[in-house]
Design a protein that fits this description.
The protein has 436 residues and is an alpha/beta fold. Helix content is 36%, strand content 25%. The chain folds into three domains: 168 residues, Rossmann fold, CATH 3.40.50; 162 residues, Dihydrodipicolinate Reductase, domain 2, CATH 3.30.360.10; 85 residues, 2-Layer Sandwich (Alpha-Beta Plaits). The strands form two sheets. Strands 7, 8, 9, 10, 11, 12, 13, 14, 15, 16 and 17 form an eleven-stranded mixed beta sheet that branches. α4 runs parallel beside α5.
């Protein structure tokens, strides 16, 4: 059969990794796809930079639109990132009747509804496995492997930078700022790390996972995000003493009232497999009604791991080139006309347990006041840890674990606790998930 020609927009880390995998495994890939796949053109902002792949037979350009308008190219692979001009490039490629493979989570999370609608209109495929969790095939697992299930909830470590920082804080007793500086030096974090450490990157990925898990439109604007910048090594140490690890989790849960979409630091029992995912690795835990809990683990970033997911999407597109567009796997797992308008809950309606750390005067009655406030707000206590005061100090740290409650109740209780004259400063709160 005639070879399939592809063009790559952005021959940097991910694009170069995908091209390298395509070239190295060309024969095996052709056997799987049923046709040879050839990279004919690629774009890059600086053509003088060294590349991860062999570019001797690739026509290079600085103008991606030249590739998009090339009638010989069947599939556009977008690995530039961002959601500005890239959105226009992807929409133009679709308009030109080309299939698109992208690793761009922000593009899909923010503009996926429009892009998929356009793709359906033109009868082309937009594949995005590499947009979530790097080389882990989590999109395919939920969209196809678990398609017989009602997904009840999912929880994922889906940002390697945050996981690296929290791992170092736990293993080496280091402070957040110190580890962040190292992460930037190692290339795990950008010069401006906001997207990673404030949960925005994970929020983009959770938006996509929730859409394919629950059959809802993509709606990043409704995801609650909270970063790890306020986590101290003291909290990490106390969590360890109580039998927990702190991880930055993306959580999507279907409840009777609607769907929780939230990214935040979370205490997880140390016995859980996902609590032992360390460094820059990613993992996603998915609970289906039929299959139960399933865990997916692997590299969440990197040239070849992410390139692996890109190439897998290219192969899927090639396999489907001659298929009836109406019978292809839907972009968001559910048929486009069957997406449900299930409400996404406000953070006050979240239901989870909590870790609370406060500082209070070391005298009788203080703990009783705190527990009375919690009881009045209908919040039950699971455990209490009170540390002795430091030498010549009269203020002691108190740590409480609550049972599952609604967040608006906890917010009311914290406000009252902070008003006690015997309590100093703010109450530090971290959510807790048993993932049972």
């Amino acid at each position: 059969m005639k070879p399939v020609k592809i063009g790559i927009l952005g021959l940097g880390t991910v694009g170069g990794g995908a091209a390298k995998v395509l070239q190295r495994n060309a024969a095996e890939i052709a056997r799987r796809a049923g046709r040879e796949i050839i990279i004919t053109r690629a774009s890059a902002s600086d053509l003088s930079k060294p590349r991860l792949c062999d570019t001797s037979n690739i026509e290079m350009t600085t103008n991606g639109f030249d590739i998009i308008s090339d009638p010989e190219i069947d599939i556009i692979v977008e690995t530039i990132g961002g959601a500005g001009v890239v959105k226009d490039m992807v929409l133009q490629a679709i308009e030109n009747g080309k299939h698109v493979v992208t690793a761009n989570k922000s593009l899909i999370a923010l503009h996926g509804n429009e892009i998929f609608a356009k793709a359906s209109e033109k009868g082309v495929i937009v594949a995005f496995e590499a947009a979530v969790a790097g080389g882990i095939p989590i999109i395919k697992a939920i969209r196809e492997g678990l398609s017989g299930n009602q997904i009840e909830w999912l929880a994922g470590i889906i940002n390697g930078t945050s996981n690296f920082i929290l791992t170092e804080m736990r293993d080496k007793g280091r402070d957040f700022a110190d580890v962040l500086a190292e992460a930037q030096a190692l290339g795990y974090a950008e010069a401006d790390p906001t997207f990673d450490v404030e949960g925005i990157d994970a929020g983009h990925k959770l938006t996509i996972l929730a859409s394919i898990a629950f059959g809802i439109p993509l709606q990043f604007d409704k995801v609650y995000t909270e970063g790890i910048t306020q986590i101290t090594r003291t909290d990490v140490e106390y969590a360890e003493q109580l039998g927990y690890r702190i991880k930055s989790l993306g959580v999507a849960r279907k409840t009777e009232k609607g769907i929780e979409l939230r990214v935040h630091p979370t205490l997880i029992p140390e016995r859980r497999l996902i609590a032992n995912v360390n460094g820059v690795m990613n993992a996603v835990l998915v609970k289906g009604d039929a299959v139960g809990a399933t865990l997916y683990y692997g590299a969440g970033a990197g040239a070849e791991p992410t390139g692996s997911a890109v190439v897998a999407d290219v192969i899927d597109v090639v396999r489907a080139l001659t298929s009836d567009p109406e019978n292809r796997v839907p972009h968001l797992a559910f048929q486009a006309n069957a997406l449900a308008d299930i409400p996404v809950l406000d953070s006050g309606d979240f239901q989870t347990a909590y870790y609370l750390r406060l500082h209070a005067e070391d005298k009788s009655g203080v703990l009783a006041d705190v527990t009375r406030i919690l009881a009045d707000c209908d919040i039950s206590i699971e455990a209490i840890l009170q540390k002795p005061p430091a030498k010549n100090e009269t203020i002691v740290p108190i740590i409480l674990l609550t049972q599952v409650t609604q967040e608006h109740k906890l917010n009311a209780a914290i406000a009252k606790i902070e008003q006690l004259e015997t309590v100093s400063g703010k109450v530090n709160r971290i959510r807790l998930e048993t993932l049972g």
